[in-house]
Sequence to fold (208 residues):
Amino acid sequence: MSDKTDLKPPFTRGAVDIISRKTVYDGFFKMHKLRLRHRLYRGGWGGEMERELFVRGNAVGVLLYDPEHQLVALTEQFRIGALEREGGPWCLEVVAGMVEEGESLEDVARRELQEEAGLEVQALHFIRSYLPSPGGACERMHLFCGCADLRDIEGYFGLADEHEDIRLRVFPLQTVLDAVNRGDAAIDNAASIIGLQWLQLNRERLGG
Fold:
């Protein structure tokens, strides 16, 4: 019987044999095709298989919170992946951006806060990092909470040369917590849901 307190799988990266890897698409994103095999739970190696891998890299997200006034700020923007979403492809999200070479996670967070919200924050509280879709993508999201005075900051942001058209919206904290808790489709992306659930558990230590 396995140890019920040990969450680690029995295999590591060494249990995967990459036979070949090639780039099959290199545009706004990249797609790799891999031929591989891996070890099996019942012993030995599985047969060779092909898998496509969506190569996106690391991202940083920041949930904006105003503990004094009990406010949360979220961006609203068009998302191609939500094109067929019942409510339409404009999504409420945390401030977020991709990590570029040589940048620290906090550097990215502060850059994106300026670009998408016109804000500086004194402290960034690390929430956690996670894999949004490991079944076919290698992206890792690093999620933070940034505290700031969010009164009168709503506006339009983003870099026009990157086709960004971002609306920053501010809501009462309880409004967004209630929306998440009842499964409201208005907030239906992982980073926002994880960030808000973390805030619900940790707001007291942030002063809220």
Remarks:
- Residues 105-117 form the longest helix (13 residues).
